[in-house]
Amino acid sequence: MRIPAHSVCTAIRDDIVAGVYERGSRLTEELLARRYGVSRVPVREALRTLEAEGFVVTRRHAGACVAEPTEQEAADLLEMRMLLEPLGAARAAQRRTEAHLKVLRGLVRLGQERARRGNSEDLRSLGGWFHETLAQASGSPALTSTLAQLRHKIAWMYAVEAPANPAESWAEHGGIVDAVARGDSERARAVMALHTERATVAHRLRFPGGGDRPERVRTSQHPVNMTGVRH
Fold this sequence. Notes:
InterPro entries: GntR_C, TF_FadR/GntR_C, Tscrpt_reg_HTH_GntR, WH-like_DNA-bd_sf, WH_DNA-bd_sf. GO terms for molecular function: DNA binding; DNA-binding transcription factor activity. This is Transcriptional regulator. Residues 206-231 are annotated as: Disordered. By secondary structure, this protein is mainly alpha-helical. It folds into two domains: 5-66, Winged helix-like DNA-binding domain superfamily/Winged helix DNA-binding domain (Arc Repressor Mutant, subunit A), CATH 1.10.10.10; 71-205, GntR ligand-binding domain-like (Four Helix Bundle (Hemerythrin (Met), subunit A)). It has nine helices and five strands. It has helices at residues 5-18, 29-36, 40-53, 71-95, 98-117, 120-137, 141-157, 166-182, 185-200, and strands spanning 56-59, 63-66, 158-160, 203-205, 215-216. The chain has a three-stranded antiparallel β-sheet with strand order 3-4-5. Strands 1-2 form a two-stranded antiparallel sheet. A hairpin with a 3-residue loop joins strand 1 (56-59) and strand 2 (63-66). It is elongated, with a radius of gyration of 19 Å.
């Protein structure tokens, strides 16, 4: 049975994000095909996709290698997310379905329950599902795909500290869902902007300046305008 290239792509991407392949290391079609139990054809297609996404680069005399993003490139990703997540929330308020709301509310309930118990691993997974579902509720495949790529690349480049007050973080998630349920796109945009700005501070570059100590991420130099936001 032929393994789809997108499945191979997902497997390689996940391993890059997990650090299985070091930055700058070669990715040979033969070794990848052997590792994932496929032919070289889907591996070749997957590498082309990963190069377009920025996870892989092709170097002369070396072939495909894991990319080595700069600190500026990493910082740009966080700024892009701070712009696009609020847009996604605003679109979700206009286009969400009852099914989306049911899932989002369920995730908030679970998140608030886990926050009380202090289970950080569960909270990380629930947070990812929440943002993925919200992006899907935006009704824009292009925006959903872009945000998914941003999440993968940010997870690759940054370590994230658990929030000091997870209950507060999940209260913000609840506020976003409330605004989306009411169809209040401006409120959804503003609350998500505040939430994303706060979350960004917890990100630490995994390899700042080539070193091995995470570096605190600076907050955006363009503060979020919260005028008119009700708390």
